[in-house]
Design brief:
Helix content: 25-40%
Mean pLDDT: 92
Number of helices: 4
CATH architecture: Sandwich
Number of domains: 1
Number of strands: 8
Distance between the termini: 13 Å
């Protein structure tokens, strides 16, 4: 996952919540393993995500972050694993949605992606 994690604005989060369905995780769950290419882009809405390397937690991330988009779009394995901690709400954005947004420079999602993977 990108080590330079940027926080989304409240307007960006509101847009993503309207456009995509969120998922609630009640228990800890390994979402992405170290050196894996993510299956989706991840947006943390509520709760916490832990970035993991060599089975050790490196950081706990709070709501408002987007992870895995750069790696997903560029087919690059992650440097860190990602564990969802219990009582966490996420939006998981499919690669097809990201690719569609990147082809439309007027879309809100295009601007969110460009701001957060640069």
């Amino acid at each position: 996952m990108n080590e330079k994690i940027k926080k989304l604005s409240s307007e960006q989060i509101k847009f993503l919540k309207q456009k995509f369905q969120s998922l609630k995780f009640n228990n800890d769950f390994n979402l992405v393993y170290e050196s894996q290419i993510p299956n989706t882009g991840i947006v943390l809405i509520d709760g916490e995500l832990s970035l993991i390397r060599k089975k050790k937690s490196l950081s706990i991330n709070k709501p408002g972050i987007m992870l895995g988009v750069y790696e997903l779009l560029n087919n690059v394995p992650t440097a860190h694993g990602c564990m969802v901690l219990g009582n966490t709400e996420l939006i998981m954005i499919q690669k097809s949605d990201l690719m569609e947004a990147l082809s439309d420079k007027d879309s809100e999602l295009y601007h969110i992606i460009k701001e957060n993977i640069a």
